[in-house]
Amino acid sequence: MRTIAIDAMGGDNAPEAIVEAVLKAKDEMPETKFLLFGDKEQLRNLIPADRINDQLGVVATTEVIADEDEPVKAIRRKKDSSMVVAANFVKEGKADALLSLGNTGALLACGIFIIGRIKGITRPGLMPTLPVQNSDDGFNMVDVGANAKSKPEYLLQWAEMASYYAEKIRGIQTPRIMLLNNGSESDKGDEVHQAAYELLKDSNLNFQGNIEGNELLLGKADVVVTDGFTGNAVLKNIEGTSSVILHLLKDSLLNGGVMTKLGALMVKGSLSSLKSKFDTAKYGGAVLLGVNAPVVKTHGRSNERPIYFTLKQVDKMIKENLVQDFKDEFATK
Amino acid sequence: MRTIAIDAMGGDNAPEAIVEAVLKAKDEMPETKFLLFGDKEQLRNLIPADRINDQLGVVATTEVIADEDEPVKAIRRKKDSSMVVAANFVKEGKADALLSLGNTGALLACGIFIIGRIKGITRPGLMPTLPVQNSDDGFNMVDVGANAKSKPEYLLQWAEMASYYAEKIRGIQTPRIMLLNNGSESDKGDEVHQAAYELLKDSNLNFQGNIEGNELLLGKADVVVTDGFTGNAVLKNIEGTSSVILHLLKDSLLNGGVMTKLGALMVKGSLSSLKSKFDTAKYGGAVLLGVNAPVVKTHGRSNERPIYFTLKQVDKMIKENLVQDFKDEFATK
């Protein structure tokens, strides 16, 4: 049986939304066990007694890592936090994967320091799946902030792992890999990006050259590789820019005259379909590539739906032996 | 009399839109002379003979730098291009400022190699004004790509110049300066951003700490300082993300049923006001800070309106002696 360790106390809607998602996923995934880590009383109150069985367990923990906690300190000091205990279960082989909605930095630290790097991988990279305008496929971007400083060799390894992930988990044949850069020509960017370009060009990947910041959502690439600093700024900027525009849109419709308000009602359906295009729930969470087990972060603001899709994503990663394949691949390099 | 040298051959709508903007601005700016550089015949055909006078001149040039030209090579080889001849007029004191819609890299090269750096400035930085959601003030972001590699000292100088620009040209008292980084704490980012944080903190600027990619359009900062590589990716990403969303919005309204189409007509006004919020025309062009004269780039896709606002912006920069102030300030440092 596959076992997913779930930090039930992280995120804005914890533990309610997490329990809700698990209860929904449980019946659809009979070969998977869900272990919820968190406050025993809260969790027991949320889970009907008859739903607790071989497939659903609760591990009582007494501490919670807060969003404002300093990550490395937090995982050292809060030994009985839901996140750290869950990570230790994975480390000890009592669970196969770790899922959390909590403090991103602390989860990265759990992945890197508790669960550990895959031998041969220099730096793990954080990889979400993001939407594109012309299809439901989306694209992967890596690294989006696990590393403040990135070297060309890291970018190559992230591209290799992300390409394999896109093929195996998302079902994309020979994924198109592109490098986020400040121009289309091969000599663009600083030394890191120029050297990364050469490494990617000489690799076995389906490398399609540079991509610029304005092209990310156009569907030109299945995987975009970037240094963690730029990736973090750009990821947050996609979120910020789309949220500001949708907010202004809502405002301008609600604050218009009677005619506008009536019109707004009539276009409501179309606007929701637009919003759902940028609702990344169906893509699941961001994967920390390069550690000894699937470690996945779902957005802290998530409600039940994205958590449910993340559970399916994590389950598929365990089922497809993704991490074992990475171990085999990078140990021999 | 103030004289603006205008590359009339760059951009998608050249020279028509440029001539149109100049003819509009001319009557409103009686103390300013407009020198148009480009194909004599084309320009003469567009300008009514009775409009050519002391305030409006044409300088005939025979070459044009294309968007795909390699910048440094282009300015060396195309000596009689509209952009290079205009830059030489500024260098020789026959004009006070340079405006172009053409090849950005070539314009940066004209600024740096022909017009020249201000003594004491290590690297010029490119600075647009961008919109924010809650006011018409916008914010300045620097550098957005003049430099692929940036050092902490560059960021401090850009912040100093941008702060002065925001105060003098945009009329903002003690502008709030923030550093684009991957977290809010002072120790976030790589060495460059950590060191830049310290320099900004110890400066005389009204430094408000770090800003993240999702907060840029919220109006928290009047000036955002960033390394040129990240700034380029983020600027292009703002353009790309907003354009994709507005495109999807239009699509979903046009492809809806009869009800949606009717509703779309009724909300049309509100949607245009949303679009005009992200129409940066009124902010003018991007300024190359740190060279011996105002050098301003307007978007290549611009029509008459943004060019008109850029002419006003450039005129104000000359009138306010911005560059002379920079020279005085940085020569003594």
UniProtKB/TrEMBL annotation, chains A, B:
- GO CC list: cytoplasm
Q: Which UniProt keywords apply?
A: Acyltransferase, Cytoplasm, Lipid biosynthesis, Lipid metabolism, Phospholipid biosynthesis, Phospholipid metabolism, Transferase
In short, the EC number is 2.3.1.274
Q: Which residues form a coiled coil?
A: none
Short name of one Pfam family: FA_synthesis
Cellular localization per UniProt:
Cytoplasm
Q: What is its main location?
A: cytoplasm
Q: Name one GO biological process term.
A: phospholipid biosynthetic process
User: Which pathway?
Assistant: Lipid metabolism; phospholipid metabolism
- Molecular function in Gene Ontology: phosphate:acyl-[acyl carrier protein] acyltransferase activity
Q: Which reaction does it catalyse?
A: a fatty acyl-[ACP] + phosphate = an acyl phosphate + holo-[ACP]
Per its UniProt entry, what is the enzyme's top EC class, as one word?
Answer: transferase
Q: Please give the SUPFAM superfamilies that the UniProt record associates with this protein.
A: Isocitrate/Isopropylmalate dehydrogenase-like (SSF53659)
- Which family does the record assign? Belongs to the PlsX family.
What is annotated about its quaternary structure and interactions? Homodimer. Probably interacts with PlsY.
Q: What does this protein do?
A: Catalyzes the reversible formation of acyl-phosphate (acyl-PO(4)) from acyl-[acyl-carrier-protein] (acyl-ACP). This enzyme utilizes acyl-ACP as fatty acyl donor, but not acyl-CoA.
User: Mind telling me which NCBIfam families this protein's record contains?
Assistant: plsX (TIGR00182)
Name-wise, this protein is Phosphate acyltransferase
Q: Give the source species.
A: Lactobacillus gallinarum
Higher taxonomy: Bacteria, Bacillati, Bacillota, Bacilli, Lactobacillales
Gene encoding it? plsX
